[in-house]
Specification:
The complex is a heterodimer of chains A (160) and B (851). With 160 residues, chain A is of the alpha/beta class. Chain A contains six helices and five strands. The chains are: A alpha/beta (160), B alpha+beta (851).
């Protein structure tokens, strides 16, 4: 059986978590979705520390959906932390937030976000959005090694 | 001259010549007689005796004479009974012209003996050849002597003597005694006597016997002695006269017929700065400045005219000219012009004085004229003509006393000429000073004259006339009035106006100064300015004066001064230098304005302003805090407020999907309404956020390509389903200066409206174009929508404002508010034309990139 690397949803709002799970089910995403309820939890998960120390149970995700407004550490701080880690540097991170503020958008991309998605107002649109993410990121797009549970390869450009 | 004097003094007893004809009877050959004579008659008598004595003895005569003597001798001979005709034809008498004969043997000023022999010797030989002695009379020696050829005369005498040595003839010479009429001729006289064998004295002294001879000699001796004494006396007198003339202050000179100065006294040549040598012996014309003048003088004198007060200009050695008056007449002798006697008077100084006086009168800035005792105008200067406005003709004498065309009194009354002050001056001998009158010229122009008149009196005190000096004081009068007016202005000014001299002493003090400072003029004029300056501000006055000395004006110098009652007040000083007519600084004028009230107002204003600033600062701080809170708030809304709305919507949807079969139709409708309301509230929140975003976002502008922007807008809309609108863009669209993201939102909202507000069933039609409006680009967006009622046009851009016509269409009423806010923040304007039911034309006006 193929073990799919999970999707990490960093979301403090249980409603949004529920809607996300529901939408994922509707578009038939078979990968497990791990939820980190705050920024610190996300960091703990990705560094396998604290309650997430079991690497087998909490493997590196293939994709991170990262809310901006989070308790303890906000989304941008988490993103900054991720990009500061050599082993997570290439991890695809999509911002998933209610804020359409251009300042937030700019900063997120600046810190290395791979995409910026605004949470839709209604359920149907959320389903469409999750369908798009699935189609693009999980089906068409080729993911880096880190997203496949492997030790990230040192890219040629860095070897040079 | 002396000769004639001595002749006149000969006593009558001696004057009798007696009959001495016998003395010529016994003249033998070889004798050489000389006769001195005083007058021609005597000579003629002697010569006639001499030749007639010879004729009796058969001795022929050769007479070499002047034509006058020849005629007289011929007449004499004829009168004594001789026939000239016979004498001549019988070869006993021959006349030769003395002058003509002389020319035949004179060579180089001396007689040539050989030539003489050819001319005279041959004639003597021819006469002597007949056997008898010959009698010869010659005047050639006398002519040579008289003409100054004395040496030649003596030589000719010797030639005659030598001829006598070889020829038989007697010779009779005659000299006018006056030829030897001065002492210097004594020695030549003896020479002449020695050259002759017999000397016959002048007719006065021809004694008839020995006794008479002795007496005559004694008388002559006495006479000689008295003459010598007289001569000495005369010499002394002459010396005196000579010295007198020589040292006379009047210039004297003699000019010969050739124009050469023969003699001049010291005054004459010293007047011109020459020495005697540089003057005497030179031609008189060398010393005249005007050649025609000296030629005229010489011509007149040589024609016997007499010159009196003849005006001439002489040249001095240093090149300067002297004006002189010449009196002169010729000295004539025997009808011959000897020389001119000329008296020269120097009138240069007088001339200069006269010219200066004339210049003075003509240069006087005043008109001057003089009338005689009858009131006739005799003299006037240029200025008078200028003032009168015409030049009176002195010959016509039509207007007496006054040449003015019209004289008027101050009230315009006409004053006849014989009632003018000038008339009274002449008629009554009155003087007038500073009389003012109005004078009208022939051309109608007028001036105010200031007239001074003095009568002129004859030596006997009677009135000879009057002199009138008048000036045009029109301008001065006008200035006077102007300065009186200025003085009145200064005096009545509310400002304190006063003046000080350079020491700070007050020289004038107006009413305003009295009011402002409380001091009366009488108290202040002559007092130092320091009285009104607070002691601690005395240095200011020195500073002000320093600036005044540097020719600066001090303006609006605000300070504090002290009133008489000791109170201080705020004052604004304006100080200017005061200069005299030569431009020399003599003091300062000051204008002081009491600015106490203004100062108080200024202080109040400043206090209020300071207070206001504090308040504004406080408010700004609180506003900034409010804005920060607002931003914080809207950020929260975007995250926190929308979360629950999305949750409501999400759960409604879930219920509709999961429990649709378990719910009644009504319950399903309620659920849909909850979802719909949540959705609508979410849109409202988003729109409000958009509005606040355009309200506070920085909007740097740049050139924006509208066509490109519209493409982006339409791409986002056309991606949607539904009927495709008809869009017409009138290319090219002018570029504008704008903040692109904000403008994109504006255009998106406008196009969104155009697409949204269409009548059901009709297809949206959109036209887009731009036009230039005063440095702006106006972008038009025209739709075929439902249009807006004119009553609502103004409100349409307000926040949450929705036209009633739009009630059937979704929307929050924020879209156009965002457009207006964003465009205004990009320094633009928005507006629209609309007709209800026929669509709307919205416009956005933004700065053109070329503006």
């Amino acid at each position: 059986m193929i073990i799919f690397t999970p999707i990490l949803l960093v979301e403090d709002n249980p409603d949004d978590v529920l809607f996300m799970h529901r939408a994922s089910k509707r578009v038939e995403i078979s990968r497990p979705i791990h939820v980190a309820p705050d920024g610190q939890a996300a960091i703990d998960y990705l560094s396998n520390s604290g309650e997430y120390s079991d690497k087998a149970k909490y493997p590196t995700p293939c994709l991170v959906l990262l809310d901006l407004k989070l308790p303890y550490k906000n989304g941008l701080e988490v993103l900054k932390w991720i990009r500061s880690r050599p082993d997570l540097k290439t991890l695809p991170v999509l911002m998933f937030t209610t804020s359409g503020e251009s300042a937030d958008v700019e900063e997120a991309y600046h810190l290395g976000a791979n995409g910026y998605l605004v949470k839709p107002a209604n359920m149907n649109e959320l389903v469409n959005l999750v369908q798009s993410v699935k189609t693009f990121w999980l089906q068409h797009n080729l993911l880096p090694s880190v997203s496949m549970g492997r030790t990230p390869m040192v890219p040629r450009v860095e070897r040079l | 001259m002396l000769t004639s004097l001595s002749e006149r003094r000969v006593p009558d007893s001696l004057e009798n010549s007696g009959d001495h004809s016998q003395q010529f009877n016994k003249v033998s050959a070889g004798e050489h007689l000389v006769q001195f004579y005083g007058d021609d008659d005597h000579l003629v008598h002697s010569v006639s005796q001499y030749v007639s004595g010879g004729f009796i003895l058969g001795e022929p005569a050769i007479l070499i004479t002047t034509p006058a003597h020849r005629a007289a001798i011929e007449q004499k001979l004829e009168s004594t009974g001789f026939s000239l005709e016979f004498l001549r034809t019988s070869g006993q008498l021959v006349f030769l012209d003395a002058a003509t004969t002389l020319t035949k043997f004179m060579r180089g000023g001396m007689p040539d003996e050989a030539c003489f022999d050819e001319v005279v010797g041959a004639l003597v030989r021819k006469f002597a050849a007949r056997g008898n002695s010959v009698r010869a009379f010659g005047e050639m020696v006398a002519i040579l002597w008289a003409d100054g050829y004395k040496e030649a005369a003596l030589e000719l005498e010797q030639i005659w003597n030598r001829l006598q040595e070889t020829h038989r003839f007697s010779l009779f010479c005659a000299y006018p005694i006056h030829t030897f009429g001065c002492s210097s001729q004594s020695e030549p006289f003896i020479h002449v006597c020695n050259a002759h064998s017999r000397v016959i004295p002048s007719e006065s002294f021809s004694p008839s016997n020995a006794d008479d001879g002795m007496r005559a000699i004694a008388i002559l001796q006495q006479k000689a002695a008295s003459l010598e004494a007289e001569i000495a006396e005369r010499r002394r007198v002459e010396e005196e006269l000579r010295a007198f003339v020589e040292n006379a202050s009047l210039g004297l000179h003699w000019v010969g017929p050739d124009g050469i100065i023969k003699w001049a006294n010291r005054a004459d040549f010293e007047l011109l700065g020459y020495s005697r040598e540089e003057y005497v012996g030179h031609h008189i014309s060398e010393f005249h400045a005007d050649q025609p003048v000296i030629l005229d003088i010489l011509g007149k004198l040589q024609h016997g005219e007499r010159l009196e007060d003849y005006v001439a200009r002489l040249k001095c050695k240093d090149g300067s000219l002297r004006h002189v008056l010449i009196d002169s007449c010729g000295l004539w002798k025997d009808g011959k012009f000897i020389h001119s006697q000329c008296f020269t008077r120097d009138i240069t100084e007088r001339k200069h004085a006269q010219e200066s006086f004339q210049q003075l009168v003509s240069l006087m800035p005043a008109g001057v004229y003089v009338c005689d005792g009858e009131g006739r105008i005799t003299l006037f200067n240029r200025r008078a003509v200028e003032l009168w406005g015409y030049e009176p003709d002195l010959k016509e004498n039509t207007q007496k006393f006054c040449a003015c065309y019209k004289v008027l009194l101050a009230d315009g009354t006409f004053v006849p000429p014989d009632e003018t002050p000038m008339a009274y001056a002449i008629k009554e001998g009155k003087s007038f000073r500073g009389v003012e009158a109005t004078v009208e010229r022939p051309d109608g122009s007028q001036f105010i004259a200031l007239v001074n008149i003095d009568p002129l009196r004859n030596p006997d005190g009677s009135i000879a006339g009057a002199i009138n000096v008048f000036q045009d004081i029109t301008a001065r009068k006008a200035e006077q009035i102007a300065s009186q007016r200025l003085a009145a202005i200064v005096e009545s000014s509310d400002d304190a106006i006063f003046a000080t001299d350079l020491d700070g002493t007050i020289t004038s003090w107006n009413k305003g100064a009295e009011r402002t400072y409380g001091y009366q003029a009488a108290e202040m004029v002559g007092k130092p300015i320091y009285n009104v300056i607070p002691p601690e501000r005395v240095h200011e006055e020195d500073e002000i004066f320093e600036r005044i000395r540097n020719n600066e004006h001090v303006e609006q110098y605000e300070t504090v001064r002290r009133r008489k009652d000791g109170s201080y007040f705020d004052v604004s000083l304006t100080v200017s230098p005061v200069k005299d007519l030569q431009g020399k600084l003599v003091g300062a004028s000051k204008i002081a304005r009491d600015i106490t009230e203004r100062k108080a107002a200024e202080r109040e204003l400043k206090r209020a302003k300071d207070e206001l600033e504090v308040r504004v600062k406080e408010r700004t701080v609180s506003l900034e805090e409010a804005v920060a809170q607002m931003e914080e708030f809207s950020y929260s809304i975007s995250h926190d407020l929308r979360g629950p709305l999305r949750a409501m919507q999400g759960y409604c949807q879930i219920l509709l999907e999961d429990a649709a079969s378990e719910l009644s139709e009504d319950n399903l409708t309620y659920l849909k309404r909850i979802s719909h309301s949540a959705e609508r509230l979410d849109r409202l929140v988003q729109d409000v956020l958009s509005f606040t975003r355009v309200s506070r976002t920085e909007m740097p502008t740049e050139a924006v390509d509208l066509e490109q922007l519209f493409r982006e807008v339409f791409e986002s809309y056309f991606g949607e389903q539904g009927p495709q609108p008809e869009v017409f863009i009138r290319s090219p669209l002018a570029p504008v200066l704008a903040h692109e993201p904000s403008l994109l939102q504006c255009l998106s909202n406008l196009i969104g409206n155009a697409l949204k507000f269409v009548r059901p069933g009709s297809l949206p039609k959109i036209s887009i174009w731009t036009e230039q409006v005063d440095g702006y680009v106006r972008l038009w967006v025209e739709d075929n929508g439902i249009g807006i009622h004119p009553d609502h046009l103004e409100k349409i851009f307000g926040m949450f404002e929705r036209a009633p016509e739009a009630s059937n269409y979704p929307g929050t009423g924020v879209g156009l508010a965002i457009v207006k806010k964003a465009v205004n923040r990009m320094k633009g304007e928005v507006g629209l034309d609309s007709t209800l039911g026929q669509g709307s034309r919205f416009w956005i006006q933004l700065p053109s990139i070329t503006a």
